[in-house]
Amino acid sequence: MMSIMDIVLKTAEEEQAKSVSRISLEVGAKSGVVVDALEFAFDMVSRETIAENAVLDIEYVPLKGECLSCGCLFESKEFLICSKCGNFARAISGQELNIKSIEVK
Ligand SMILES: [Zn+2]
After folding, report:
1. What is the pTM of this model?
2. Domain tally, the chain
3. DSSP label at residue 37
């Protein structure tokens, strides 16, 4: 969360913004990020910064895998095991924590 805040504040500074109104984040299902904890952490780190009143807009990205054997694409809640052939798959989304956009004033 600290590093996100660094990016937000740096971006705001570059834009010579007076305040940050909205931060859109993409949070992967398997990123290890707990949204409640993220919001709480954001409240803490944004306090007394220009992002203090920013709205946190969180978009949930489901875990998606691509099978290493048959190449099929699938969505999963938990495990990266191919739903067709049962082999291992690699994650193609669901592990990210990205800043999608930052709105400033
Ligand atoms: Zn497969």
Report:
1. 0.81
2. 1
3. H
